[in-house]
Specification:
single chain, about 290 residues, twelve-stranded antiparallel beta barrel
Length: about 290
């Protein structure tokens, strides 16, 4: 596959479509700038429930100051690109992947409800998370965040980090992430607001436990400036696939790049906290099938 590098980060040439890029990018930027919050809906995959873990796909909607959807159609779509072996064999906090945010997707198979990237679609955001063999305090995972510019290239704008935690079992303390800009300055701290079963068990069936709120904190005074909320999904779907829907309530007056960083932080949080290891997921499937008879 043809690739190129910018600022030591590698991108695929197939992400560099230029189909009406300036107008399409302006439309997306205006939509995101108007949004005081966004909803992230994950597509349910039957394949993930019963066969193997499929790449995650999302629709992202914007909400304006009147709490109305900016458009009936999604602002953008997000699709994971990852290795099948890593998805099905590595724990969530080890898995490497790219998450591309596209202008549009199109239906590949209406009967199976399958979506794929439209070949004429522009990629606006690219998130790259490399493999990290995390052991307690060592080799903490991170994600690089890049945005598309008007000239068609990608610009690195920051990274999301899972900060060093205390060294006893890390699962006890895996409760948030740090958001850094392109100069590695700490922009936001994101921490879970309270501990629920859903904080530690992604396949928890109880709706109340599935809902988890994260505080977006200012690094200077630790004041709460915004929220990320994990929303409850269908009980059976959540138990079978661990799918997650989110709402991001942005801090007031933030710029486009910071909104993109918080969007990336949400995908990073899901991969860190709400993706079970393959063994745990298969046990959940067995339990659900036994309940269903």
């Amino acid at each position: 596959m043809n690739q190129y590098k910018v600022n030591q980060y590698t991108y695929d040439l197939q992400d560099l479509n230029h189909n009406n890029l300036p107008s399409a990018l302006d439309e997306f930027m205006n939509g995101l700038n108007k949004s005081i919050s966004v909803y992230i809906y994950q597509k349910f995959d039957v394949e993930t429930a019963f066969l193997c873990v499929a790449p995650r796909k999302y629709k992202i909607y914007g909400e304006d100051e009147q709490k109305k959807m900016i458009s009936n159609k999604p602002l953008v779509y997000a699709k994971e690109r990852s290795n099948c072996l890593c998805r099905n064999c590595c724990p969530g906090d080890f898995q490497p992947f790219k998450m591309n945010v596209y202008e549009k997707l199109h239906i590949k198979d209406e009967i199976k409800n399958e979506f794929k990237v439209d070949q004429n679609s522009n990629c606006f955001i690219q998130l790259v998370r490399q493999f990290r063999c995390t052991i307690c305090c060592f080799f903490r995972p991170f994600m690089n965040v890049s945005i598309r510019t008007q000239n068609g290239s990608f610009q690195f704008i920051g990274k999301i980090k899972d900060p060093i935690k205390l060294c006893p079992p890390r699962e006890w303390f895996n409760t948030g992430v740090d958001v850094h800009d392109s100069n590695d300055n700490l922009v936001y701290i994101i921490e879970v607001s309270e501990f629920k079963c859903g904080t530690f068990c992604s396949s928890c069936c109880c709706s109340a436990c599935q809902e988890v709120r994260f505080h977006i904190l200012s690094p200077h005074d630790r004041n709460i400036v915004g929220y990320i909320e994990k929303k409850a999904t269908d009980c059976v779907k959540n138990a079978l696939t661990g799918m997650s829907n989110f709402k991001i309530i942005f801090p007031e007056g933030i710029i486009y790049e910071q909104k993109v960083l918080l969007l990336a932080a949400t995908f990073f949080i899901q991969s860190q906290m709400f993706i079970e290891s393959p063994g745990e997921q298969s046990e959940d499937v067995d339990d659900i099938l036994e309940i269903l008879g």
